[in-house]
Structures are given as C-alpha cells and as structure tokens.
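Hi C.,

You asked whether I'd gotten around to modeling the 172-residue construct. I have! Everything is below, sequence then structure, no commentary in between.
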Amino acid sequence: MFQIGSIVVHPSAGVCNIEDIREEKLTEKPRTYYIMHPVADKSTTTIYVPVDTDKIHLRKLMGRDEIIDMIRHSTAEKIEWIDNTNLRKAAYTEILHSGNTSRIIALITILHTRRTRAEEAGKKFSMHDEKILLAAEKKIHQEFSQALSMQEEEIPKFIITQLSACAVTSQG
C-alpha cells in the first residue's frame, strides 16, 4: 500500500502524487481510495483509485539503476513495423498502454527510425504514428525526469547516451 505523499505511476495519467487516502462513497458501498493528482497537470484534475482494485495497477517510480537497465533491455525488444496503418495503430497503442517501459522505449526507437527514413525519402510521417510517438515520449520523459530529477528536455539525450553505452558494450 502506498502512503500519502508517494509519487506513483498511473497507467493512463502518468506520474501522480498521492495527496490523500480516505474512504469515499462513490458507488453503492464506501471504499478506501487513493486521491491523487497528475504531477505534470497544472489543472485541478483529481484521480480516485480504489486501494483494493485489481483493474488499475499503480507502481512506484523506478530508480536510476532500474531506468538504465530498462533502457538497455529495450534494445532486446523486437517490435516489428506493421505496414497496415490500422493494424499498426492498434498494435502500437496497445504497447503504449501496456505499461511495459522497455517496450515503449523500443516503440519510440522504431517510430523515430521510420520518421527519419520518411523524411529522408521526402515523404510525410503518418499523423497517427506521430501521435503515438508523442504520447510514448511524454509517458517516458515524464517518469524519467521525475525519477532522475532532470528536465524532460534532457531525457532524450540521457536515453541516447545509455543506448550508445549499451551498443559499445555489446560490440566490445
């Protein structure tokens, strides 16, 4: 069980701060809820998650070593490019919502590669792919910046540095 003040990762809202834990009667019978707010959301969005739910999996922020391991593990993830736009959108959206950080990093990598290839060929990158890429980057950058006490803008360079170190290690 998390405590008041814990920073957690919510599967869809991202990094959140648990501001209270209390009983609420939001349905027929009262339940105990985590009351939280997304860290990046400057509005007054409040999220209620039942403490005893199996449907929404909150997790603690990763530490620096876990993040580095996750980045390096992402190189072993095999995400294939899917030519059919609708199938690709469905498959990549599923990865995005899976909560599997190493697969999300691998997804970002393949989408960056495809965008670069499209630009080099003088073609446009699909709007659907761009949306998925931006959502994936937001999810990863938000958590990593919070966990590493870095600005979100610094996270891509950090990831590239870790991926480069992994490539050098695997070659040597």
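If it helps when you're writing up: The radius of gyration is 18 Å.

Thanks,
B.
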